[in-house]
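Allow me, if you will, to draw on your knowledge of protein folds for a short while. I have a record of one protein: its chain in single-letter code and its fold written as discrete structure tokens. I should value your view on which stretches of the chain appear to form regular backbone elements. Thank you for your consideration; the sequence and its tokens are set out here:
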Amino acid sequence: MEDTKMEDSSNQREMSHEEMPETHSKGGLITMPFIIANESFEKVASYGLVPNMILYLIKDYHMGVAKGTNILFFWQAATNFTPILGAFVADSYLGAWFDKNATKFLLVNPDTSSDSTFTKAKKEKSVCRAFFNAGPACSPGAILFESWGGMILLWLTAMVPQSKPPPCDLMTQTCSSPTSAQMTLLFFSFVLISLGAGGVRPCSLAFGADQLDRRDNPKNVRVLESFFGWYYASAAISVLIALTGIVYIQDQFGYRVGFGVPAILMLLSALVFFLASPFYLKQQASKSLLTGFVQVIIVAYKNRNLTFPLPNSTASYHHKRDSNVVSPTDKLRFLNKACIIKNPEQDIALDGSAANPWSLCTVEQVEELKALIKVLPLWSTGIIMSINLSQNSFPVLQASSMDRHLTKKFQIPAGSYGMFNIISLALWVIFYDRAILPMASKIKGKPVRIGVKLRMGIGLFLTCIAMVVSAIVENARRKEAIRSGFQNNPTAVVKMSAMWLVPQFCLNGFAEAFTAIGQTEFFYSELPKSMSSIAAALFGLGLAVANVLASVVVSIIDDITSKGGKESWVSSNINKGRIDNYYWVLAILSFINLFYYFLCAWAYGPTGRQATKVKSIAG
């Protein structure tokens, strides 16, 4: 048995040695244009569908504002949640199949070598897990067969009259509700788009960072900070194109053309990514971290009655071979019971791994879960800001009732005002990266950066102000509509420029630039490198939770304010409704969240960079 272990260990070292030159010869800046182009095409296609969708649901499917808004919230939530669900399912089923069969081969053929069938099986296992878990390496396939298919179905709802309700009867002022079949087709298109888009959005960021991340490089922190900033800037420009170009096409040429163009762009997204496949640095896919977290919790509970080993008794804890972490830390000590070896002969397999990962975990698994738990409070502080940023439907309805003309012949589409959010975000990233930091560093005579916790706090404060401004502007718009006699006519255009909506979009753009980028950088730097995909997925998960909670908020406000036959604050007639009061509710929640952030930031203590005495303006 010992000889077998030594051979296997030798084989692993040999494999690592053989793969090392290939790893270092790939990745780098050459891959960036393809990764960013893939993400950009996807964003132009997907985000171009969102702004006018509320108008499409109201006018073509005869939905109320509250119902249409809730559908869009759940659609966005599904888009942000599907990558996490897919990773768990892939590892639970596909990964388990390979684990079972590879282990059987090892038991039958203990004398394995680096070129054996078992080695090939392990490589195949990595490839298959990469297909489901690594995201960007295979996400174009998901985009091609899922997002593209979903967009084709959505396009068909605009092309085929029978796929949606007939137009309203102008004589009787009655509208037919959509049938179950029509709603099923619409929802199925949304589901496919979410599955495809969800496969690339949270993963491409981590995948791109892996191409550049060299932690032995003294300039690595600056390289990653610059990458995160420019990645978001390029994504922002893509969304800007979607909010202007795609929305303009929908307004001028209708949804038949407006839904067809995104489908074509989705095909281009996949093709661009495949072109650079030979150049990518592809990390060997490993077991799903989400599954590992669940295992730690379950095993720790099963072992809750075990006594802890004596101090410095490292042999009692199970860890990976050649690992520098041989015993768990004392923080969240109850989780340490998940990696206690009860019976070495029964708990440890021939290759040194756990015989049953649902009965014994590694020290690394335990510490990774602890690291995740530590950042969760700060992660939760970004949810309220994400709720504010997800308010796409109401500003579109506001803009459609205001004067949008820039000249006598040209007016900005109602769905395009979100571009000011993106413009302010992109401008701040460029200004911060190319002007503020170089100037501050020159003045100080040493590298200077603004700490991530300070940046996140500034962003949360700005989103509070944005909601206050939103409430004030909507109150002024509604008063003007009532003064003009349009209380019963929500489609009438008031004599108030829609440019009054720009400040709230700009404030939210600055808030996102500070908090969203700061959070992503915080997660990526504070969590172990093995958790880079989790670091990227956390922001997407926050958006998903925010979308669900935003729907809950709208539903609660709609139910409470419409009791007794009263007009709902989120009424389909925005002139009778009180969207301004809805914004005030979000503003109050945002200020409460700001104080919650101060508490979490204080409890977290210094970040990893502060602990290593990296100079910064503030933390």
